[in-house]
Amino acid sequence: MSAITTHVLDTSAGRPAAGLPVTLEARDEESIWREIGRGTTDADGRLRDLLPPDFELAEGAYRLAFYVKSYFDARGAEGFYTEVVVSFVVRDAGAHYHVPLLLSPYGYSTYRGS
Prior knowledge:
The two termini are about 15 Å apart. The protein is built from 1 helix and 9 strands. Helices cover about 5% and strands about 45% of the residues. It is globular and about 40 Å long. The protein has one helix at about 70-75, and strands spanning about 5-10, 15, 20-25, 35-40, 45, 60-65, 85-90, 95-105, 105-110. The protein is mainly beta.
């Protein structure tokens, strides 16, 4: 499991959001965002392998981009958002960071999970 993981729940359907594309970026020393991982949520709405196995997490700014338009389009649902971006700070490079997303077509919520 990578040091940064996510889990997406579709609260409008009452089930995991499977097949949702996600990217992970880190901000470098020049304040430029660089993609460091990508994937798609599994049948349980989880993405456990965002980072390559040999990736060493460092302190700094990161952001997850959830491409929710493609998820809702694939289900024939109309939604308001095209993507949801969650920016956060890693202060302890040795810790695990789990960032869940609770999603519906017209709203979302997130928190730091465990």
